[in-house]
Design brief:
Blueprint: E1 4-8, H1 12-23, E2 27-31, H2 35-42, H3 53-62, E3 66-69, H4 72-76, E4 81-84, H5 99-111, E5 117-120, H6 128-140, E6 146-148, H7 158-163, E7 168-171, H8 175-185, E8 192-195, H9 197-228, H10 232-240, H11 261-274, H12 280-292, H13 295-304, E9 311-315, H14 330-341, E10 344-348, H15 353-360, E11 365-366, H16 370-374, E12 379-382, H17 387-390, H18 394-400, E13 405-408, H19 415-420, E14 424-426
Parallel strand pairs: 1-2, 1-4, 2-3, 4-5, 5-6, 7-8, 9-10, 9-12, 10-11, 12-13, 13-14
Bound molecules: 1,4-dihydronicotinamide adenine dinucleotide (NAI) and uridine-5'-diphosphate-glucuronic acid.
1,4-dihydronicotinamide adenine dinucleotide binds at residues 8-14, 31-34, 37, 85-88, 100, 103-104, 107, 122-123, 151, 153, 155, 259-260.
Pfam families: UDPG_MGDP_dh (PF00984), UDPG_MGDP_dh_C (PF03720), UDPG_MGDP_dh_N (PF03721)
Pathway: Nucleotide-sugar biosynthesis; UDP-alpha-D-glucuronate biosynthesis; UDP-alpha-D-glucuronate from UDP-alpha-D-glucose: step 1/1
Family: Belongs to the UDP-glucose/GDP-mannose dehydrogenase family.
């Protein structure tokens, strides 16, 4: 059944939801309060870097199923279902800031005329959907059903994640409203989990918190590997082959970043405190992650002591490959520490450089390729495992750097390769390989 849908918010989640649902045949109008964003979208350009997204925006706009507007009336008036996908950034004391969700609900209440189901896709604390139902009633004077439908896509693989996700969660108190949302997703042919509203809200936070826990856990095992002489790659492989553990999210590195894991782990801890409970595991997960983001810097200090005036290269700035998002990116922590030490920093990222320039301006130098970034440097830090960074051979480092000291936060190379290629190579959870003797 094809439906008339509206989306509030054209960030990652709103845009990908709008584009994919129009691609399976629904008519979708995306509304955003950001006029500049809507202008860009109307021209068929994506305001975010996401593989495959721009092509799909153009295709579905041209075929007449997808449109963009800054006028809430146009988006909401006739919609049968309205998805709220606005931001829920970290607010006071770590709690989720719900002001954007509330404003979106008020606009929906004022303009919707077709008795729509209101679907909350934004990540919101348990109990929020019920609050929004009340706001909708207060501002419209009649009852509108609210359904919780949290999102599980990842930046950088958002389209693939939407078309081949593991599950779609639908939390509803009204069966018919839940059925309507289920019907929208039917063409995707994905497993559907139906729950009550509060459980759906909790599934989202619990999933993100569990994945974040896996990362902090493997990062602590990596520290122990470094101390004991074990190899984290082999350890993670051996653990991950146990289906009860699973191989995913066992890549040790320099801590998790991004717009969601840090804020969602904090919001869940805050929610627990609101219910008079201290979520002990999660406070350790956050603490471990905080420390892990400084790991590369500490390694550099360990081998060089004084970094003042050192010429360093930072390869990769986004919080993960295939996105220009630098929110909570570990690169920012490293830059900050190195600036305080007085290092001379050159950075490179295939996509995210402009975002970093907005923060650091001329305090950094910006290179347009890996080679330009590492040329004549004393230390190269690998921070984000973009393909062109992973594909750079040790021979290139040897040719361009004074005396290659590579500190790799993403374990991009094998230790055998490093030993064979005569570079100094320090990675995560593995023995360092030294060509030149460091004290
Ligand atoms: N970024 C991600 O990969 C994922 C995000 N989420 C959750 O989805 C939600 C949205 O996240 P993002 O898409 O990253 O947010 P974002 O911050 O990139 O975009 C939010 C958009 O909403 C717009 N907006 C604000 N108030 C509005 C209003 N009243 N009406 C219409 N538009 C409005 C903003 O202008 C902005 O374009 C958050 O709750 C987030 O935790 C969930 C899964 C994945
Ligand atoms: O709620 C959200 O916003 C989303 O948060 C994450 O998605 P995302 O933040 O886009 O990216 P991930 O691939 O999960 O990576 C997050 C961080 O963890 C790090 N990571 C990931 C995996 C791993 O094994 N090791 C590791 O250090 C990444 O480098 C990155 O900094 C979740 O994976 C999505 O399911 C969820 O929808």
């Amino acid at each position: 059944m094809k439906m008339k849908l509206a989306i509030a918010g054209t960030g990652y989640v709103g845009l990908v939801t709008g584009v994919t649902l129009s691609d399976v045949g629904h008519t979708v109008t995306c509304f955003d309060v950001d006029e500049q964003k809507i202008q860009i979208l109307k021209q068929g350009t994506s305001p975010i870097f996401e593989p495959g997204l721009e092509e799909m925006i153009r295709k579905n706009t041209e075929e007449g199923r997808l449109s963009f507007t800054t006028k809430p009336k146009i988006a909401y008036e006739e919609a049968e279902c309205i998805f709220i996908a606005v931001g829920t950034p970290e607010g006071q004391n770590g709690s989720a800031n719900l002001q954007y969700v509330e404003r979106a609900a008020i606009a929906i209440a004022k303009h919707a005329k077709n008795n729509p189901v209101v679907v909350i896709k934004s990540t919101v604390p348990v109990g929020t959907n019920e609050k929004i139902e009340k706001i909708l009633y207060e501002y419209s004077g009649h009852h509108l059903n609210v359904v919780s439908n949290p999102e599980f896509l990842r930046e950088g693989s958002a389209i693939v994640d939407t078309f081949s996700g593991d599950r779609i969660v639908i939390g509803a108190s009204d069966k018919a409203a839940g059925d309507r949302v289920e019907a929208i997703y039917k063409p995707l042919k994905l497993p559907i989990v139906r729950t009550d509203i509060r459980s759906a809200e909790m599934i989202k936070y619990a999933s993100n918190a569990f994945l974040a826990t896996k990362i902090s856990f493997i990062n602590e095992i990596a520290i122990l590997c470094e101390k004991t002489g074990a190899n984290i790659i082999d350890v993670a492989k051996g653990m991950g082959m146990d289906k009860r553990i699973g191989e995913q999210f066992l890549r040790a590195g320099i801590g998790f970043g991004g717009s969601c894991f840090p804020k969602d782990t904090n919001a869940l801890q805050k929610l627990a405190l609101d219910y008079d409970y201290q979520f002990k595991i999660l406070s350790s997960v956050t603490e471990v992650n905080h420390e892990q983001k400084k790991h590369l810097f500490h390694k550099a200090k360990q081998y060089f002591q004084d970094l003042n005036g050192k010429k360093v290269a930072i390869l990769g700035l986004s919080f993960k490959p295939n996105t220009d998002d630098i929110r909570e990116a570990p690169s920012l922590d490293l830059i900050q520490e190195l600036l305080l030490e007085g290092a001379e920093i050159t950075v490179y990222d295939p996509i995210a450089m402009e975002n970093v320039k907005k923060i650091y301006g001329d305090r950094l130098q910006y290179a347009s390729s890996v080679s330009e970034c590492i040329e004549d440097k004393e230390i190269a830090f690998i921070v984000t495992e973009w393909k062109d960074i992973r594909d750079t051979s040790f021979a290139t480092y040897r040719k361009l750097m004074r005396e290659p000291m590579i500190i790799d936060g993403r374990n991009c190379y094998s230790l055998e390769e490093a030993a064979k290629e005569h570079v100094n190579y320090i990675s995560i959870g593995r023995k360092p390989v030294f060509f030149k003797k460091f004290q």
